[in-house]
Amino acid sequence: MATKQFTTEEVSKHNKEGDLWVIIDSKVFDLSKFCGMHPGGVSVLLEESVAGQDATEAFFGLHRQEVLLKPQYARLQIGAIAGEEPQIFPRAVGALSMGHRAFQAAFRLPDASAREEDGKRPSQSVFDAMARANIIAMRLGPGPHLKGRVLMDGIVKPEEEGVRLNARGYLDGLGGGTYIGLPPIMNFGQPALRKKVLEEVFSGKKLVCLAITEAFAGSDVAGLKCFAKRTEKGWLVTGTKKWITNGMTADYFTVGCRSEKGMVVLCIERGPGVETKQIKTSYSTTAAFQQVLVPYENTLGEDGSGLQVILSNFNHERWGMTAGSISSQRSIVEECLKWASQRKVFGKPLTSQAVIRSKLAAMISRVESAQAWLENVTYQMCHMNYKQQATHLAGFVCISPASGKLATDRFQIFGGRGITKSGMGSAIEQYHRTVPFDAVLGGAEDVLGDLGVRQAMRKMPRTRVYRPLV
Ligand code: HEM
Fold first, then answer.
1. For residue 458, how far is its CA from the centre of ligand 1 (angstroms)?
2. How many domains is the chain partitioned into structurally?
3. Is the complex ipTM higher than 0.85?
4. SS3 for 93-127, per residue?
5. Which domain holds residue 40?
6. Mutate to test the pocket of ligand 1, among 35, 43, 62 (most ligand atoms within 8 A of CB)
7. pLDDT of residue 418
8. CATH number for 105
9. Domain match, 255 and 336 both
10. Could you tell me if the CB of 63 is within 6 A of ligand 1?
11. Tens digits of residue pLDDT in 284-334
12. Which residues are 80's β-sheet partners?
């Protein structure tokens, strides 16, 4: 249906409560009924410069562009100004690189904000869609498990873009636990177990989680207390696990236990003896885990070598977390760039202030250095096997720039909106609330950083004595 055409004169006649039109980016909106429900209040809409006028500038200084794309607001449009064209477009899928944008679009799901709020498991239809595109298998990185699979309909090579959802709890819910819990099953599980679990997980039917952390031990995995005792029927596992990503929704738990020989890692299926309960954390649901009988076929690796199984996971786990963190930092820079060019203060866009440009420059340089670090380490990981990675990259990955200390200038740019859960600053608020966790996920940043430096020290040549340059 052709869009109805109006002149600016016609629109200007509808300038009072009960009969209120505005022009935004050449589109005409009838706000007569919506006016009373407007989250920003009635009075702003009745101002002389807004009611019946072109309110494009006022609108984009206060709203996210996506507002007008939401069906409940899009339907307020009644026509367009004759002879004018819209100047503001949402970022088009395919505008930069077809594959890259399509991958982002696939991840930006409407389910995200609702589930982020209620903390429930993402809808099965989302897992089904991810399974069809082989995204679940892709998240495990390159390897034999990708053989014969067409990734994202063949449009893209694996890249880490998920965090751009700006819904971190939801993103974890989509398989954050699988990403870290499945590799020990893939690499150390017996063939039958491996086949069964991989099929179920890659088809989007089941979820895995990694259950290492306890109330007693986190980064110091050697201090775990959860105990696996040998019995005639199998392992009897007693203990609790805490802060387990996807613990509430997982069907399989990859569990680090203490045994008589030291440490052992077991794959525990949800069933009798497994209890999970929700503890509300700042941004996502977590779980507690208790008591169960486990068949010996579910032992991952050797009894006594559990620590190696757990440590073998750390490189790619840490890599994934760094990729996630840097991706969210880049999206925050994007938000700041958009806002700074959209927002007018003292009659000029924020970007006309040198101090704002300087903050943007500092943020971009920090974040893009981290991105370059990530691409460097990703390239190396893709060209090394697990053992080589452990020898040459473990320390390097530990000193990852995952920390939320980057991009702290965002507040100065967003002001009060940076602490507001809705509207323009929502992504900034979400980032601010969750970013400190980047420094503890997968091991405390300080502990890992120290490990990285110690690894480097171990490789320093011992034969040469340091001589100062004169
Ligand atoms: C089609 C027209 C409009 C729609 C659908 C709309 C919708 C909204 C929504 C959903 C919000 C909540 C914050 C957000 O999600 O971004 C909001 C806030 C606001 N709106 Fe509108 N709005 C419209 C037009 C306008 C116009 C023309 C003005 C003129 C000044 C305005 C002024 C405001 C203000 C001041 C806020 C509070 C924002 C803040 O403090 O961050 N709105 N609006």
1. 58
2. 3
3. yes
4. CCCCCHHHHHHHHHHCCCHHHHHHHHCCCCCHHHH
5. 5-81
6. 62
7. 65
8. 2.40.110.10
9. no
10. yes
11. 455 555 678 888 999 998 998 888 888 777 777 778 777 877 887 888 888
12. 5, 27
